[in-house]
Write a structure and sequence with these properties.
- The chain is built from 9 helices and 12 strands.
- The chain has 252 residues and is α/β, with parallel strands linked by helices.
- The protein folds into 2 domains: 122 residues, Periplasmic binding protein-like II (D-Maltodextrin-Binding Protein, domain 2, 3-Layer(aba) Sandwich); 91 residues, 3-Layer(aba) Sandwich (D-Maltodextrin-Binding Protein, domain 2), CATH 3.40.190.10.
- The strands form 2 sheets. Strands 1, 4, 5, 6, 7, 8, 9, 10, 11 and 12 form a 10-stranded mixed sheet that branches. Strands 2-3 form a two-stranded antiparallel ribbon.
- The longest helix is centred in the first third of the chain and has 23 residues.
- The radius of gyration is 22 Å and the shape is globular.
- 35% of the residues are buried.
Length: 252
């Protein structure tokens, strides 16, 4: 009888261990990103790095999650979240009223602004928002803050606006002369213009309003959002965010 009891107890421990191990797979969390240096991008080894990538990995690591970065199409980011292709969006996402209505947003953790990317030779042509009207084609990422801004400018027509899948693609569009201007996040503009393939491009600030970046969750994931809010507040206080900003050359 004792041997039988010992066997049953051992079996129960084994089953418990298997269940516990299987439960660990439930701690995997998929983060939706795009190729957006210096926020999220792959290093030479293929690992996702950047200000947002490192901040997300550290924050969710504190909560016991193993993160996986999933590259998504930015224009359909809400669909990717709701379909559970990803669990969180953490990729320099500008807070808008439309997003607030669709998904749950964290407290802002960074300030952003839209700027123009142009050929250096055209620097004198675009010094104000009114100057955009003279551009034949303006490139931007579909579903981005730039998309919202440009669509609300009465001085522009639909024929002037060129929606693209990725912010980074707009740089080649301007370099090749296919577009006169691109409207992108200032962090990306600082990272890519005046160097490498884009030595002949520059960026100009024409006074677009500042924006807030936030993390996106499904509406029902209130507890996870609250936990991230607490961690971000701590990181602001202890200097973690400031140190990452300095490392990746961004302003917070």
């Amino acid at each position: 009888m004792k041997k039988l009891l010992a066997f049953v107890c051992s079996l129960a421990l084994l089953v418990t261990g298997v269940v516990a191990f299987a439960g660990c797979s439930g701690n995997a969390l998929k983060i939706g990103v795009t190729n957006y240096p210096p926020m999220d991008y792959r290093d030479e080894s293929g690992k996702w790095v950047g200000f947002d990538a490192e901040l997300a990995e550290k924050a969710f690591g504190e909560l016991g999650y193993d993160v996986e970065f999933v590259e998504i199409v930015w224009e359909t980011k809400v669909m990717s979240l709701e379909s559970r292709e990803v669990d969180v969006i953490w990729n320099g996402m500008t807070v808008t009223d439309d997003l607030r209505a669709s998904i749950l947003l964290s407290e802002p953790y960074m300030v952003n602004q839209q700027v123009l990317v142009i050929r250096t030779a055209d620097a004198d042509k675009y010094t104000s928002q009114e100057d955009l009207a003279q551009a034949d084609t303006i490139a931007f990422e579909g579903g981005s803050a730039a998309d919202t801004i440009l669509s609300e400018m009465d001085s522009l027509t639909d024929d002037q606006l060129l929606s693209m899948e990725k912010q980074a693609d707009t740089f080649l569009e301007v370099k090749s002369g296919a577009s006169d201007v691109a409207v992108v996040d200032i962090a990306l503009a600082k990272e890519m213009t005046g160097k490498g393939d884009y030595t002949d491009l520059t960026y100009v600030d024409i006074g677009f309003a500042s924006e807030d970046f936030a993390v996106g969750f499904r509406k029902e994931d209130t507890q996870l959002c609250e936990q991230i809010n607490e961690i971000l507040a701590k990181y602001k206080e202890d200097g973690t965010i400031e140190a990452l900003a300095e490392k990746y050359g961004v302003s917070v």
